Amino acid sequence: MKKINNKILILVLVVLVGVFVASRLFRSPGLESTIRKDLVSLDSATITEIRISPANQQDQIKLIRSGKAWTVEQAGKKYNADSYSIKDLLQTFCSIRPERMVSGKKEKWETFQVGESGTHVSLYNDGNLKESITVGKSGFNQSGTSQYGGSSYTYVRLSDEDEVYSVTGFLSSTVNRSLADLRDKSFVKVPKDLVQRIAFKYPADSSFLLQKQDTLWLVQGAPINRSKVDTYLNQLTNKRLNTFSNDFNAPLQADAVVEINGSGGVLCTIEGWKNGTTWTLRSSLQPGVFFSSEGSIIEKDLLVGKNHFSTSLP
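The chain above was modelled as a monomer; its predicted structure follows.
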């Protein structure tokens, strides 16, 4: 009886192996032809240029790296680029993985907006094209399995191939950005531990001096609430403004100047010009770039008055 059982087990094993081999020979090629592990696999550190031809047919946007710095160009205008946006783009397009192939026919391109109506993204290394991708329609799958009950997707196509793939995420919102979206919005970057003195230079007699003496912070020689100073200094470590004022011609004399000093001298200077309820601002971090902000916001934020710090000590 034991020998018979062993023979049955061996026979079952042989049948299972045969089924597995047959599935590999006859079924896998068909499946593997529709699914690829990677569409793009590039080292982001080797990419020196990204070209984006937007779906809205605006002028092509070029992102160009020189050393560690990136610039953004469009229609003859050139600015420092936003490092966060560059990182997002590189992470997205240097390792695209498909979920499934939705079409292998060229006549279906416009159905998925990966033809002329798509956004074309090209990645270069020192002038050599490494990969070109067309980004099409994005959507949301309500029957998805994410923790929110659905999943986002985007249709993409390698520009030299006919096949259209579905990938995870809203890639169209990543690439269809304006020139302003891709510009560097850094306004002030000063390590708080280096700051020893801040001079607020305002009209008339409203100017004042915030200064550190040993472990205390003083305004015009009087001790103040340290938490207020910490809050102000924290924002100086990476202050960003979102609205540019491209056509502003700065008068020689600013309406407000904030000079941030360390033990070795000036760390950063902020200048502001007021027009009605709006301030136009620039800093020495990007001296050729002007930003605009509502007065009610910036006066509670950067261009503060003496009373901002004059609360009782904790």
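The two ends are 89 Å apart (CA to CA).
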